[in-house]
Model the fold of this input.
Amino acid sequence: MPDSACPGCGLVLPDADRPQTERLNASAACQVVHDRVAAFEADHLPLARFRQLRVDAYGAQHAGPPTPAIRVAYGLVGLHLALDRGVSGTGVRSAHALMGRPDPDWPRFAAAPRAEATVLDVAAAGADAGSGLGHAEGVLRWAVSVWRAWSTAHAEVVTLTGRLFTGQERFWYSTDRYLP
Ligand SMILES: [Zn+2]
Done:
């Protein structure tokens, strides 16, 4: 199999022997790794609390067509809430439900700068090592690296979040948090 780079995250892998499962700006081989990570998470109940962070990191790291703009906006708002404000996955899901459909005046987050980590690092630390703790730490490290790579968009994400949720913060903090 020849190698190719994922157009979203830059991960270079041998081509997959199956098509894409989701219409995203991601190679099929990158999606195979993401599916492996998601399956490991699903098999280990305590890791369910990392699901939303994983979904948001993957979406934000694969911005650009054909990834839907809503997936990128939800991902970036989710990363901001989780990593800057300690909102749990359940709280982020509540926030996404309140966000609804994108408005034409939402900023367009077109560029996906390269982050230091990819979903392959999460697989190596967790699923491929059979380590739940490795998965947990791997998802956090990866999500932080994706959020850091978007640093030029942080101000826009914070402004969008403030505009959408002022007065509704109680929804986020109704459950546990990632951070103290
Ligand atoms: Zn990728």
User: Anything to note?
Assistant: Strands lie at 3-5, 12-14. The pocket of zinc ion is lined by residues 6, 8-9, 11, 26, 30, 62 (CB under 6 Å).
